[in-house]
Design goal:
Blueprint lengths: L5 E7 L7 H14 L4 E7 L11 H4 L3 E2 L5 E2 L2 H9 L8 E3 H13 L10 H15 L8 E6 L9 H14 L4 E8 L2 E2 L4 E2 L2 H12 L6 E6 L5 H11 L6 E5 L7 H7 L2 H8 L11 H11 L3 E9 L9 H13 L2 E9 L8 H5 L4 E4 L8 H13 L4 E4 L1 H13 L7 E2 L9 E5 L14 E9 L4 H6 L3 E8 L1 E3 L4 H6 L2 E6 L6 E6 L5 E4 L14 H16 L1
Parallel strand pairs: 1-6, 1-7, 2-5, 2-6, 7-10, 10-11, 12-13, 12-14, 14-15, 15-23, 16-17
Antiparallel strand pairs: 3-4, 8-9, 17-20, 18-19, 18-21, 21-22, 22-23
The structure holds glutamine (GLN).
The site of glutamine (GLN) has 10 residues, from strand 19.
């Protein structure tokens, strides 16, 4: 296969949750700093076509790209570290692979052949491996293989990686295996055996890893590194230590110190185009670690027992907090536990309140109580997607006195459907991939809080919803002081509401958190934190 693109595959061993996404993003960052154009893709071994239909408790947040793909949350890390945009092609599941193959079979494209895992599924996987590389834009494509080596369901991916070596040639192909070196307290020893076993499993599948990245709580002594090199057939300098870090944003610098980028370049026979020292990244880290102030912000939602459900929001606070040198003490509060009797005790300590995105009725009334408190007590308020819809409903009920005003999502028979199903959604019966998804333009009202934050009148943000502000109520709502300060210029769909007589009350139908990156903090998050700082001073 003639291509100048280099392919790096990252597999995982011993256990899940070792942070393959962070290692992939960190390596990508280091290669970018050396002047290469890099993208990262993730191949997930489950059968859902995409994570869009998954409950956040299954795999954490569903991350949405500009082109409207519902993807794995690791794509968020890729964008946040590399300042790039990803797309549908950057996330492929087993379900999508099988769907493609079965669709081709039904069309008769296999010309009467028996369709099999090898070669048809593996060929489909490989053609997806190479898709982004073939765009000609990238020097390096990093592919993260989800799951663990040895899982039944990831076998076809592993087999496709084995075959890819022969398509690409040894100088264009590299496998990094991320593994765990556990510390046994009783024996006071770091143990290499689980890694030996997982590399053995890779070898059985015909793959020799080139580099081992070893997650560990303690530094790896030279004899441990030597043992790993000897038993796993890797060069001693290709055993890379990945110590637990204070923040995920430390990992690129830790990997640089361990010379992961140098090992990769030498094995891929690439010579560095430049070697910047990541000054802007260090500057970001310096601010993140040395805040001059602190605020308490409440994230009110219904999936709070798994913080990964709100990954991008949490990271957006990290980026924006660093930008204003403020430590954001983010408190995740379950909206199900908030009611009209206890809301004050639950929310009293907060300098700013964010009501999170979500679906369905559970915890909804707790969110209404939360918004009422923030509006009446003039606490800075930020509502995202469902959070914005709740803000509108609360305003309708308690300011316009439209009793029982609701979203038809929560009450299909409400007498005041102030949030209603979008017209184009009414005919849709299928669940997967059918919401209003991806980037749309929004036009901002001059002088609004949002305009002030973005510093521009036209913005693009990403969406994931079915319901919208019902424009029949717009005049009434605006006359009472809640203003639609952002609208879609083509459809008039209300994208942002703000309350005039309030220090900072902004609800957005879109998801600003998806576009926040370490070096480009999202402006609404920055302004929200600043408003919380102001509120704290007044208190
Ligand atoms: N459930 C709401 C809708 O579909 C909000 C979705 C969200 O918060 N992402 O419109």
């Amino acid at each position: 296969m003639a291509s100048s693109t280099k392919y790096i595959f990252i597999t995982g061993g011993v256990t899940s949750s070792l942070g393959k996404g962070i290692i992939a993003a960190s390596l990508g960052k280091l290669l970018q700093a050396r002047g290469f154009s890099v993208t990262i893709q993730k191949f997930d071994p489950y059968l859902n076509i995409d994570p869009g239909t998954l409950n956040p408790y299954e795999h954490g947040e569903c991350y949405v790209t500009d082109d409207g793909a519902e993807t794995d949350l690791d794509l968020g890390h890729y964008e946040r570290f590399l300042n790039i945009t990803t797309s549908q092609s950057n996330n492929v599941t087993t379900g999508r692979i099988y769907n493609n193959v079965i669709t081709k079979e039904r069309k008769g494209e296999y010309l009467g052949k028996t369709v099999q895992v090898i070669p048809h599924i593996t060929d489909e996987i490989k053609s997806n491996f190479y898709k982004l590389g073939q765009e000609g834009k990238y020097d390096v494509v990093i592919t993260e293989i989800g799951g663990c080596v040895g899982d039944i369901e990831s076998l076809p991916f592993i087999e496709a990686v084995r075959q890819a070596r022969w398509d690409l040639g040894p100088n264009n192909f590299l496998v990094i295996h991320l593994t765990l070196i556990p510390y046994l307290k009783a024996a006071k020893e770091l143990k290499t055996k689980p890694t030996q076993h997982s590399v053995k499993q890779l070898l059985e599948a015909g793959i020799q890893p080139d580099i081992l990245v070893c997650r560990t709580e303690y530094h790896l002594p030279p004899e441990v590194k030597k043992k790993l090199a000897l038993f796993c057939n890797v060069q001693l300098n290709s055993v890379i230590e990945a110590m637990d870090a204070d923040t995920i944003y430390d990992v690129p610098l830790l990997m640089k110190k361990e010379k992961l980028d140098e090992r990769v370049l030498s094995k891929l026979k690439l010579s560095s185009k430049q070697n910047t020292d990541l000054e802007d990244w260090k500057d970001f880290l310096g601010k993140l670690k040395n805040p001059t102030q602190e605020v308490n912000i409440g994230l009110i939602g219904k999936y709070v027992s798994l913080p990964d459900s709100y990954k991008s929001i949490i990271e957006a606070f990290t980026h924006a907090g660093a930008a204003v040198e403020c430590h954001v003490n983010l408190k995740l509060i379950s909206s199900e536990e908030i009611n009209s009797d206890n809301y004050e005790s639950k929310l009293r300590d907060l300098d700013g309140i964010l009501v999170a995105p979500g679906f369905g009725e559970r915890g909804f009334e707790g969110k209404i109580e939360t918004v009422r408190y923030a509006r009446e007590k003039k606490i800075p308020f930020f509502g995202i997607c469902l959070g914005m819809q709740v803000a509108v409903i609360e305003f309708a009920r308690n300011v316009l006195e439209l009793e029982n005003a609701n979203s038809t999502e929560m009450d299909p028979y409400t007498s005041h459907p102030i949030i209603d199903l979008m017209e184009e959604q009414k005919q849709i019966e299928q669940m997967g991939g059918t919401m209003r998804l991806g980037a749309y333009t929004c036009e901002l009202k001059r002088g609004s809080k949002s305009h002030l934050a973005y510093g521009s009148k036209k913005i693009q943000e990403r969406h994931r919803h079915r319901y919208e502000f019902n424009n029949r109520y717009l005049d009434q709502v605006e006359a009472a002081g809640m203003i639609a300060t952002g609208k879609n210029p083509e459809t008039g769909l209300v994208e942002i509401v703000e309350i005039k007589n309030h220090p900072w009350f902004v609800g957005v139908q879109f998801h600003p958190e998806y576009k926040s990156t370490a070096l480009n903090p999202q402006p609404l998050f920055v302004k929200f934190i600043q408003a919380a700082i102001e509120n704290k001073k007044v208190k």
